[in-house]
Design a protein that fits this description.
This protein has no helices and 14 strands.
Length: about 150
């Protein structure tokens, strides 16, 4: 069963019924949700972090800090990515989910804002464009398959 979370409520899309409530982490607005490693990951825009939370209780299991505003989060092929946007700069970052270390960064052209992030589960990211009215498609870098 696929469940949706809205305003801290877990909703069964077939019936539209709320099946559980969990508190939203952090003090600021949430800026994205993604599922990975058996947990729910929530971007915290103004707090500049990503929280790994227990989907049953809402308890924060881990907090990963960022030095930029977090504007979206997604998992693809076991990799945690997040979007950033601050001032005239934005980009996508692949980060270590244990340490928060930036492992890879894709910078967008100056003035290009990213207001959301999702993966197609393969080779493309879909990025909201803030007030631009555009959704941008960004190709995920290929991984070296050599042992």
């Amino acid at each position: 069963m696929t469940l949706h979370i809205k305003n801290g409520r877990v909703i069964d899309p077939a019936s539209g019924r709320v099946v559980a409530r969990i508190p939203a982490p952090g003090d600021g607005p949430c800026s994205g949700l993604t599922w990975g490693e058996g947990s729910l990951w929530v971007g915290q825009y103004r707090d500049r972090n990503i929280d790994r939370i227990d989907q049953q209780t809402g308890a924060i299991q881990r907090t990963i800090e960022s030095n930029r505003f977090v504007t979206g989060v997604t998992w693809v092929d076991g990799e945690l990515w997040h979007a950033t946007w601050e001032g005239d700069e934005s980009g996508l970052r692949r980060i270590d989910p244990q340490t928060g270390q930036v492992l890879e960064q894709l910078d967008m052209p100056p003035g290009t804002g990213i207001s959301g992030l999702e993966s197609d589960g393969k080779d493309e990211f879909f990025c909201g464009g803030g007030n631009s009215g555009k959704v941008r498609v960004v190709r995920r870098p290929k991984r070296d398959t050599k042992d």
